Amino acid sequence: MVTLFINTSFSSVFILIVLALLVHTHFFIAPAIVVTGEDGLISFLLKQYIQPLPSVFLWLVYMGILLLQAIRLNMVLNENKMFHNGNFTTAMAYVVVSGLFPEWCSITPAFIANTFLIWILIQLFKLYNSPAPKVLLFNTGLIAGFSVICYHPTAILIVVILFALIIVRPFRIAEWIVLLMGVITPLYILFSILFLTDKWNLVTQFLPKLHLGLPKFQYKDFWVVFTISTIFISLLAGLVYYSNASNRVIIQIRKNWSVLVVMLLLMLPIPFIFTNTAMYAVEMLIIPLSAFIANAYLYPKKLLFPNLLFFLAVAAIIHNNWSMS
To answer: Residue 213 gets which letter from DSSP?
Structure first.
């Protein structure tokens, strides 16, 4: 299976669509569901306009967004020469990882918010050689600030952007101020509207609510442990292959990979910070996970190991989704 994605071609897009249909065949038994909460504008929009749709439209919405995100993320990494050659393994990994937990197979605010994460990643990758870094930083801050309004757990992105700025650019106080102004601007506009319309009492609905603690999780369930172990082994293999390949890449690409490392590490505490939406919010980790797992699919000379990782994930997908159907 992996060999079908190690090159870029039009047929790879078609095969990716087939893979997405196979990974999410459980939708033919149990339709896609919409999960909302009190966690931002996306939840409100999903509840008002998406949740009432018939099951077939929910399936089309989920599959459409999933494929667009997978292909866009793959294009971003290929365009920035993150691998030695163009490939579709990132899109493949994104689709596979999306099916590992039932919570990740739903239309959720976190699932929609991944579009903002990819957008921010594009901005961060441009920073190193940007002729107008202040404009880019302000726009990046705008996206981050707006994403917080849309989905509260994306507040962690502000920290990600600050660390990414440390990695990619030399310290310049003016650039930091511009970035923070970008972050604050959407919130400032929102709070001004609430104040001027005498709805200031609603302000707390637009601010992130932290719920610290241990996430509710079936730690002793074999298939939960199996799924997490599969993700960990695939990620570890991807990091090892990335480390071996990084010796032969230019500094800009190393910095871009460092941004992905920062995103991965800073998002790991999400289930412990937002325990009320733990398993849904952690879906944002799929983006950095897919990028690193793609290395494990692409670089091994013999395809036995990548295919083994793929079929371990398939076993978890089949059990976790079909047993819940």
So the answer is: S
What pLDDT score was predicted for residue 279?
A: 76
Range of the domain at 255: 2-322
Burial of residue 75, with CB atoms counted within 10 A of its CB: 0-12 exposed, 13-18 middle, 19 or more buried: middle
Tokens of 218: 């079936």
Find where tokens 């692409």 sit: 298
Q: Which residue has tokens 């980790």?
A: 285
Mean pLDDT of 27-40: 85
The helix/strand/coil state of 107 is strand
How many independent structural domains does the chain possess?
A: 1
Residue with tokens 């412990």: 272
Place of tokens 């790991």: 268
pTM higher than the cut 0.85? yes
Contact 206, 151 (CB under 8 A): no
Cβ distance 280 to 103 under 8 Å? Answer: yes
* CA pair distance 291, 286, nearest whole angstrom: 9
Which of the two residues, 301 and 91, has the higher pLDDT score? 91
